[in-house]
Amino acid sequence: MKVVVLGGGFAGLSALNFYRDAIVIDSKEYFLLTHRLVDVIETGNPSLATIPYPKGIVKANVMSVDFKNKVVRTSDGDFSYDKLIISLGYEQDTTRVKGNVQKLENLEDALAIRTKLPQVKSVAVLGGGNLGVELAGILREMGKEVHLIELQDRLLSFMSKESSRFAESRLKEMGVDVLLGTKVEEVTPEGVRTNKDLVKVDMAIMAAGLRGPKLIENLGLSNKNGRMLVNDYLESMDYEDVFGAGDCMTTKSFVPMSAQVAVQSGRTAMENALGGNVKFAYKQAGIVLRIGSEYFGDLMGRFVRGSMAELAKRVGIYRAIKMVESL
C-alpha cells in the first residue's frame, strides 16, 4: 500500500509512526513545536521549537494534486499514491485586520519579532487564546508595555472559567493591560484602533485568526474557514482514498486545533487509509499554559496550577520529541 502524507507536523508524524512505509512530504527540514514559538521570541534560540526531521522525510513544496490519477506534484517531482493523507497544519489570516500586523505562524515569524523588539517599547497582542496569553506574559517579562486585546468577554474562552480568571489576574499583576470585549478595527502607524479607543503601540502581533492553509482551497477541496471537510472517518467529502488529519481538517460539527487532537487524528486517518473503519473521536486530556514562572491550565476536567501543571506541560513536550526521535 503506497500512502503519501502531506505535512510533517503532529498529525503527519503520528500517521507515519502508525505506518512506517508511508512517504511524508514537508516544506521544512524540521519538526516545529508550534507551542514553543513564544520561547523562541523570549530567547532567540530556534532549537527550542525545532527538531530535525529523520532521514526519509521528503523536503518539497506541494504544487498540486491530480486526484483522478492519484499523483501529488511537488517541487521535487511527482509522487503517486494509493491513499493520500492531507495534514498541512494551519495558517494565520492577517487579512481579518486592516493595516500592518505582524503574524506569528512559524519559526521565521518568531525570529522576526525577536529582531524587532529592541526598537519597540509597546506591543499590542491581538487575541486572548493560548498563544496570546503566553506571548503577553513573555513580552511583559522582557520589559515591554503590553496590551492584550480580546473580542470575547474573557481570556481562554474555550477553557474553564478558573483558567480564564487566573490568566487575567496574573497578567494584570504583571502590568499587562487586558482589554476584553474589544474588537480590533485597524492597525495604524499610531497604534491599534478598536471599537472603543485608540491603543497607542509600536507593534501589533497577531495571536489569533487561525485557518486552514490556502492550499486546501487551491486544491478545490470542500472546506470551512480553509479547513478541509471530512466525514466521521476522516475521509474527504470530495474524493475517494483521500483523508484529512490535524489542524487543516474539520468535520461539519467542528474539530478543535490542538497538538493532542492532531496526533489522534493522524493515527486514525492512517488506520482508516490502511483499510480500517474507525470513527474519529478525539479526547483533549489537558491544556497547560505558562505565564512567567506560573504554570496552570485544565487537566482531566479540572483546574490545576503549580508543579502538577508544569509536569504535564513538560511531559507533553517530551512526548512530542520522542515521537520524532522514534522514527
Automatic annotation (TrEMBL):
Residues 1-266 form the FAD/NAD(P)-binding domain. Its cofactor is FAD. GO terms for molecular function: NAD(P)H dehydrogenase (quinone) activity. Keywords: FAD, Flavoprotein, Oxidoreductase. InterPro entries: FAD/NAD-bd_sf, FAD/NAD-binding_dom, NADH-Q_oxidoreductase. It comes from the Archaea. GO terms for biological process: aerobic electron transport chain. It holds the Pfam family Pyr_redox_2. PANTHER family: 64 KDA MITOCHONDRIAL NADH DEHYDROGENASE (EUROFUNG) (PTHR42913:SF3), APOPTOSIS-INDUCING FACTOR 1 (PTHR42913). Belongs to the NADH dehydrogenase family. This is FAD-dependent oxidoreductase.
